[in-house]
Specification:
This protein is mainly beta. It has helices at 10-14, 17-22, and strands at 29-40, 53-60, 64-69, 78-82, 89-100, 103-110.
Amino acid sequence: MAHQGIATARAAQNASTVAGLARFFPEASPVRMPVQLARVPQGAEPTAAHFSESVVIEFGTPREVLFECNTPLEFGDQLQLRNSDRSFDVAASVVAVQYQPGKTVVAARFRGEVPNWIVKS
């Protein structure tokens, strides 16, 4: 005798919340780039930014980065992102947010051109 049941997929349960936001950015490619995050106060210079959190850029396009953080951010917030050797040190603006319990999923657009930061083959 056959029994019917419902099984839940583990992959769906463990799927990255950033991947969910990346669906709205068709050019997004997976990236694993650790950076420091600073929220730049309104009217302040990015050079005065206080880097308060380490995050990992999980997806990127030629113009945007997508990541998850603990810092409460809102649409339009100004950010500074930089890697450990400062070869990537860019200003960005928050263009999308998704709030999850205890974290914020963010898409931020570069405020200037960042040539060749992501290369598609």
